[in-house]
Amino acid sequence: MVNIKTKRFTFVAAIGACLATLISFALGFGRSVWFDEGYSIIVLDQPFDRMMALLKVDVHPPLYYLLLRGWTGIFGPSATSMRAMSCLFCGLTVLTMMALLRRLAGAKAALMTMPFLVAAPMLLRYGYEIRMYSLVPFLSVLGTYTLVRAIEAEHTSGNPDPRIHGIMPVKGRRWWAAYATVVALGMYTQYMMALVWTTHLAWLYMRARRVGGFTALRRYLTPYVLSVALYLPWLPSAVDQVTHNALPALKETMNLNELGSIFSVFVTGLNGSRLPSCVTVMLIAMLALIITRAIRLHDAWRLRQNDETRAARNTLGAIAFFAFTPMVILLLISAIREPFTHPYGFFTMRYTTPFAPYCYAFIGLTCSYTVIEYVPGGTQVERRAYARFIRRWSAWLLTMALLAGGSIGYAFQGNYIYEQATTPSTAQAAEQVACDADQTIVAASEFDYIESYYYFRSCSRYRFLKRGNVDTRGGYAPLHGSHAQLRNLDDLDTKRVVIVNRMGFSQPETSRYRKIRTLHVGSSTMVFYESNRSTAG
Description:
Order of helices and strands: HHHHHHHHHHHHHHHHHHHEHEEEEEH
Structural class: alpha/beta
Radius of gyration: 26 Å
Strand content: 5-15%
Helix content: 55-70%
Distance between the termini: 85 Å
Oligomer: single chain
Largest sheet: 6 strands, mixed
């Protein structure tokens, strides 16, 4: 019979997951589709064989696209429907993290940490994109959960010591098999997941040194062998993608300024360059409160030294390890790679999504422990109830206020793209032009064509300008050999032409058309042309 407390915890955790799903969906509702999302849609519109061929020459594995294809087959291909699938994974991330925290930290600490996950700006912002950035954190947390359950199964069996040879219990084998499957699924979703699995491997190595040495490590490596076997069908394509990298050069370098921006975006949704002074002061105050209370908590735990405090300290250390080790690995990769790609770096804010849930869990768990295990700061102050309340809850409340404010801020700044420092407005721009027999809509480049593709995919007179051939690899590959390519504006015969663009535009040479006006809609620009013949007539 299930414990009633377990039922209550599950019910509350499910409510939190539903809230995260609904909040993310509300933040993404009606937002303009941008280039990366447009690529997902244009690939999805291809026949299955063509879709898989395009994914093999892209930079991401196919799992997300396969799931999205199945989802749209049931719920339709609208942007709202596709965003809903991502939001579902956002909620599942919260639910899975709650299950993990309950096993590691207990129900009370997990429930107090839940608001930090529900109001997490980074999870909510990328929770609705028509990309794999909500599936990735879900698989990351699910992998950690199955890993923890597999280790627990060993302890609860009759053979808890990995040094003792014997047959692993069936329950343990099932959890290890589940973990291996999730590892493979993660690599089928995004290659950045390798940072998470490397972190797990490092954690298992440290554990093996304590409990069983080489024998334990060999046992822990078994699920990774299975995951590689499951990944073999895609491995040749993965090697080809890595050796023929089609990823456009990123301009961000993972320097001290970018590390500060990661912290700022995680808490407030704003990167360092857009952070107001007042919010900066609040961030500094939040850090000071967390650090001072955490130091006092650590001192109290060290003096107490019982099983409960050791378990809490180990839990906090494990979550911190899962949160920050991938970031350190990413920093080291960037440091090695960037000198060879100068002036381009190797970082974008979306790269942090695989380990973002652990960052929020660590912050939330730290604040929650300072409330649960409150240590008074002075006898005179503690005589006043309101002062005690403020000292006890200040870090928790201030951090939650900043997270909630950051999430609410996305309702105003929209689906801001950090590496481009802009918010797309393709939906609003598309409303200003009509596709008819007398007017051709021309995207200024392949980028603009794919970004606006969703809004004009039913338009037979939607084209893009490109004099040379389109690349056969990367994000523009779906347009290679496309009938939509237009090499010269004078090749058109319609009375009017509208050129749409967002990433900069140089006026094309034309003798058939003359420019009549320019319209700016948010970050998008539309240039209207009229045929010289219609003017003469």
